[in-house]
């Protein structure tokens, strides 16, 4: 199970909890909306967080979007 402090974007130091909060706060619902937002810049450098994840573990932006949509973001 992924934890809130799992880093999603190493280049911008954004973890699951921070990204989920940004998605909720800004009503983001697509990968393009997340990438274009300026509140929490993500996916604009090495771009591994858009696909396979920084550690090739599958933890990526789309996964967090789905977790927010399904209301399955872990609590603490």
Average pLDDT reading: 92
Distance between the termini: 12 Å
**Count of beta strands:** 2
Low-confidence stretches: none
Structural class category: mainly alpha
So how many helices?
3
Order of helices and strands: EEHHH
Widest sheet, order of strands: 1-2
Describe, in plain words, how this protein is organized in 3D.
The chain is mainly alpha-helical. The protein has one domain. Helices cover 33% and strands 7% of the residues. It has helices at 16-25, 31-36, 61-69, and strands at 7-9, 14-15. The protein has a two-stranded antiparallel sheet with strand order 1-2. The model has no long low-confidence stretch (mean pLDDT 92).
Element layout with pairings:
Blueprint: E1 7-9, E2 14-15, H1 16-25, H2 31-36, H3 61-69
Keywords:
7% strand; 3 helices; 2 strands; mainly alpha; globular
Q: What's the quick description here?
A:
The protein has about 80 residues and is mainly α. It has 3 helices and 2 strands; from the N terminus they run E-E-H-H-H.
């Amino acid at each position: 199970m992924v934890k809130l402090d799992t880093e999603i974007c190493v280049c911008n130091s954004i973890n699951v909890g921070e990204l989920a909060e940004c998605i909720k706060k800004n009503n983001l619902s697509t990968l393009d909306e997340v990438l274009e937002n300026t509140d929490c810049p993500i996916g604009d450098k090495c771009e591994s967080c858009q696909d396979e994840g920084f550690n090739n573990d599958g933890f990526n932006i789309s996964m967090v979007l789905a977790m927010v949509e399904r209301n399955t973001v872990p609590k603490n």
